[in-house]
Amino acid sequence: MVGPHLIRNALSAVRRASTASLVAIAVVAVACAFTLAYRYVQERRGVGAVASPSLPTEVFAEEMPPTGSFTARLDYTCFGVPGSGEVSSDVFWDDAWFFSDPSSYNHGIARAASVLSALAYSESEYYKEGSDSPAYMEHALAGLGFTQVDSSSYRYRSEVVDEVLDMVTDESDGVAYTVATKRIADGEGRERTLIAVAVRGSYGSEWLSNFDVAGSTEGASAEELELRRSQDHAGYKRAAAEVEEAVRARLAAAEVNGEEASVLLCGHSRGGAVAGLVAAMLDDEAARGDRSVSADSVFAYTFASPRTTMSVENDRARYGNIFNILNPADPVTRLPLESWGYARYGVDLTLPSVDDEGFAERYAAFEGRIGTLTGEGSPYVPETKRTLDTVIEEMSAAVETPAELVTPSGAARLAATLVTRIDPLTVLGGHYPSVYIAWMQELDANDLVLASAV
Questions:
Q1: Is the pTM of the predicted complex or chain greater than 0.70?
Q2: Which of 262, 277, 389, 282 is nearest to 331 (CA)?
Q3: Integer Cα distance of 109 and 124 in angstroms
């Protein structure tokens, strides 16, 4: 039989352990709070983050800078690639592209933009303290002849502490992007300035921004209310407003110098959503008569973009310069739900589908491409498209409006549908940037299908 003194000793030990645990938790909490507060002060003062890199001078050793039409070998990183994740692609480039009609799909621009969109992720590693990762984007853009490269938006948006701080301060709608400038000519005496922008996709706490489809207006500022009255996805639009401001600054500089300017916008996933919204904003400004941007000067190519707007005018001719490349087996392109009224600005073009005639032969060629690119097999299962068709139908029935999504019952119904139907690791394989790059390398322009025709 256990004696009373043993019970007292055991209870005393538990109390001591509990007290020690509480003290340890308190110490950790205080340390975390201090770290976040200190980082907050650093960010407001503009100190304590990795400095933006300069352009690599060795790229221009033989020619300053490359112009006209040429092929450049670009290094970058891709998800799912072993080791450092680094891969390389030969990218054909032609300055003359940007003297053409932006509403005519250009497969060359699309191929180059797919790689630039992947590079937008690669740049993040450079901006981590202690990292020896190269400045992939600066190297790549220098190789394509761009100057005045600015990737400073990655500062305070690439470290873990910054992502946690953004959650605490409710600033997860930011976005990292690179903007660069190149003086181009078409060989016929015409010249202009090309402003290129590559937007990074979801990173860290930015994932929270993806779900800002039906937020409450309670306590919102006048600016916030105006944003929510807009028919565009609120989280993406806040990010787009920042990128648009950077583009406007470059356009203004070109205008002061008396130069005509074109803009290339691209991105993958959330980056594609933001790039598409910026393009639509510029299109609207051109339609209103803004002299610094013309209707024939904006080129936008997005990859794996979620839907971004509830505007019924999303596909009007004004936005015909925005091309959204979509994989039918990519779940991200199905969200927010079409049944909620969401769509994308511009023209949706789909990659080959498992339900297409002759798909097996095309997919075999794709597997060869992605194997050459990454050294690995295909990360996605094409038949996932059929699963997604069923799941999206069930989700639309379970959660009929975006407002329901933020209610406990709506979230529970959605979670139940996803848990019982979806294997995340399998499904997300179709979303990888490498999948889009390999398909773009394998396909010709006429292999893409208008989504409205599917």
A1: yes
A2: 389
A3: 24
